[in-house]
Structure formats: C-alpha cells, structure tokens
C-alpha cells in the first residue's frame, strides 16, 4: 500500500516505514503529524484518486528530526567585466517517518 501526498508544494510517493525530508513543519521532534493532502492511495489493484485530493484519506507520520540540507553554491560571473558574485544557501527541512496510511 502506498500513497501520493502533497506537502510544502511538492509531491511524494510514500509507504509505511519510509523516511523522507520535507519542507519545514512546525512540529516538535517525536510528535505525530497528520498529512491530509492525499492525492492518490493504491492498495494492490485498488487505486483511488482524488479531484484533486481525497477527503477521507489520511497519512500519519512521526517527526524524526529537523535539519538543514547541504550548501548550494551560487556563482555569477560576467566575462571581461570584472564582475563576480558568490552566494550560498542552505534550505531547512523536517525529516519524517510514515507510520500509517488510511484510505
């Protein structure tokens, strides 16, 4: 059984036991969160899709950790103009573990 969820403007295919890094959620480490924007649930041959979301489906997850991704370096340069600019960015994330899917 798996589901397609939407959180933080991105879509993820999840199953029970999966760990994934999503955009920052305002929840404490160790707490349970309910993800309610479920786009699709598949259980063997039975597939349920929403228009655009399924109302009765829920995915429960546990917050494992908060952290920051690796640094992404941004380098801009204009040749022959003596222009160079360097920047870096680290995006915050919340790591969650999927504990249950209910359709």
TrEMBL record:
User: Which keywords does this chain's UniProt record carry?
Assistant: Ribonucleoprotein, Ribosomal protein, RNA-binding, rRNA-binding
Entry's transmembrane regions: none
Instruction: Name a biological process GO annotation.
Output: translation
Q: Which gene encodes it?
A: rplU
**What Gene Ontology terms describe where this protein resides (cellular component)?**
cytoplasm; ribonucleoprotein complex; ribosome
Q: What is this protein called?
A: Large ribosomal subunit protein bL21
Q: What PROSITE patterns does the entry give?
A: RIBOSOMAL_L21
Q: Which family does it belong to?
A: Belongs to the bacterial ribosomal protein bL21 family.
Q: Which Gene Ontology molecular-function terms are recorded?
A: rRNA binding; structural constituent of ribosome
Which Pfam families does this UniProt record tie to the protein?
Ribosomal_L21p
- Protein task: This protein binds to 23S rRNA in the presence of protein L20.
Which domain of life does this protein belong to? Bacteria
UniProt keyword rRNA-binding present:
yes
Q: How does it assemble?
A: Part of the 50S ribosomal subunit. Contacts protein L20.
């Amino acid at each position: 059984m798996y589901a397609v969820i939407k959180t933080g403007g991105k879509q993820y295919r999840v199953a029970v036991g999966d760990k994934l890094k999503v955009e920052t959620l305002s929840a404490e480490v160790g707490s349970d969160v309910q993800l309610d924007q479920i786009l699709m649930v598949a259980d063997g041959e039975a597939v349920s899709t929403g228009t655009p979301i399924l109302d009765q489906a829920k995915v429960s997850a546990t917050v494992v950790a908060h952290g920051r991704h690796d640094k992404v370096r941004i380098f801009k340069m204009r040749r022959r103009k003596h222009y160079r600019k360097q920047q870096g960015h680290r995006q915050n994330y919340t790591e969650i573990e999927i504990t249950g899917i209910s359709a």
